[in-house]
Amino acid sequence: MIRLLGGIGAQVLAMLAVIGRVTLYALLTLRHLVTPPFYAREFGSALLQIGWLSLPVVGLTAFFTGGALALQIYAGGSRFDAEAVVPQIVAIGMVRELGPVLVGLMIAARVTSSIAAEIATMKVTEQIDALVTLSTHPMKYLTVPRVLAAFVTVPLLVGIGDIIGIFGGYTVAVRSLGFNASTYLQNTVDFLEPLDLISSLVKGAAFGVIAALMGCYSGMNSGRGAQGVGRATKSSVEAASVLILAANFLLTGVFFSI
Amino acid sequence: MIRFDDVHKAFGANQVLRGLTLEVPKGESMVIIGGSGTGKSVALKCVLGLVQPDRGLIEVDGRDATEGDRDAFLARFGMLFQGGALFDSLPVWQNVAFRLLRGELKRPKAEAREIAVEKLRRVGLSPDVADRFPAELSGGMQKRVGLARAIAADPEIIFFDEPTTGLDPIMAGVINDLIREIVVEMGATAMTITHDMTSVRAIADRVAMLHGGKIRWTGPVAQMDNSGDPYLDQFIHGRAEGPIAAVR
Ligand SMILES: Nc1ncnc2c1ncn2[C@@H]1O[C@H](COP(=O)(O)OP(=O)(O)O)[C@@H](O)[C@H]1O
Ligand SMILES: [Mg+2]
């Protein structure tokens, strides 16, 4: 029994220690962000990797989710004669919650994993050591460009995801649920408020930072060998996903509970 | 001059360096030999601050290696890593010219490329390698690119971690000559780790043997053959029998 409690205690302590180290890592990233040099080329390629190349997966995810959402709301709404709310609920559901969360999770799957695997491999093959000996700070060269690129592009991806998601709902509603196209769009536009959009983009920025930061952190702290790379990748995606969901809960509270 | 004074380093329970004491005079070529896993690479990494020693002091030209401006300190060094450690996201020439493309030594792209191609030629690689990516090269070629990168900015102090491992005998000869040349012509201080006794004789002014986390023997290369040290003799002649256990 005591051993069990001890085990749990040790786990909790270890988790707190990791949270502390990640926080420290985030602050360090911030410090390196505001001090020169800034590696513009690395930033450019991170923009491409994180933003542009994530578009297809983000678009598909959002489209299918929007479509499914419309079907569900229609089915659920019809139980109390409220089928007409489909456009409003799809809009609010996509923009406030599903858009940012799904894009965040897709970014965690796609970007966090690839950042973690890449940096961990660099660590294992001594490329990080080589960077240091070539007077290049790994934080500045690897972490800052990726985190900044995620901060800039993920909100855009979320915005695009919101639009495509609404369009998915619209397509389903108009094609198979018999909604009138222009009324659907009108209802959507009338219903959404600026705060909905702002919260969506703020969430996107936060999730982007979390995703990129966790990838870099896990990669930099990878163990040795192929196994080390595997572990770093796995734990980075786990941590990023959980943190994104937790941050979503917090941010939703901040934006909408008052 | 590089001076190790009673340097200790352990990774968990694995005691690697246990009181390493060694002096490498300026402008000389020191070769470190010793069995695999005795901590030769770790010793070099301690100088560069890539590994923090648990105890002991490392001085470069009389100044504590851990103090002062890191960038200025590291700018004096070139290092060839045991595995090459090339950046696989960059083409070969940008690897070689890495230091020349950013930071204080930055210069125009065309000029950096020219220097890279010239350094590649010195390690026996033709200019058409310049635009390939490291993953497209053989192990021996990657090693030579790593060597070209180490010498690209004409450093004062150069570390070579197993420069000839994985090369054919002719290429090994080319690299040995190159290292010798760098020390003699540029007056650089070199520390080379190798298991290749031909290399030792070709490169070294002085030799040090690392065993059990300490320097077992050190002296001019000419005295290596009649040191009277059974450990060194066993290593030089590659005998399975002797004081160094074959199972480690
Ligand atoms: N970063 C590290 N973490 C844990 N152990 C290490 C690390 N670097 C080296 N070691 C261990 O230190 C010992 C010496 O390694 P190394 O210096 O690479 O040997 P070698 O003399 O062959 O170059 C080995 O047992 C190795 O496993
Ligand atoms: Mg080694």
From TrEMBL, chain A:
Superkingdom classification of source = Bacteria
Q: Which InterPro entries match?
A: Permease_MalE
Record flagged with keyword Zinc-finger = no
GO cellular component terms given for this protein: ATP-binding cassette (ABC) transporter complex
Coiled-coil residue spans: none
What PANTHER family has UniProt attached to this entry? ABC TRANSPORTER PERMEASE PROTEIN-RELATED, PROTEIN TRIGALACTOSYLDIACYLGLYCEROL 1, CHLOROPLASTIC
| Name listed for the protein in its UniProt record | ABC transporter permease
Question: What does UniProt list as this organism's lineage?
Answer: Bacteria, Pseudomonadati, Pseudomonadota, Alphaproteobacteria, Rhodobacterales
UniProtKB/TrEMBL annotation, chain B:
Q: Where is the ABC transporter domain?
A: 2-237
Q: List UniProt keywords, sorted A-Z.
A: ATP-binding, Nucleotide-binding, Transport
Query: Which Pfam families does the annotation name?
Result: ABC_tran
| One function term, GO molecular function aspect | ATP binding
Question: What InterPro entries does this protein map onto?
Answer: AAA+_ATPase, ABC_transporter-like_ATP-bd, ABC_transporter-like_CS, P-loop_NTPase
Q: What is this protein called?
A: ABC transporter
> Which organism was this protein described from?
Pseudooceanicola atlanticus
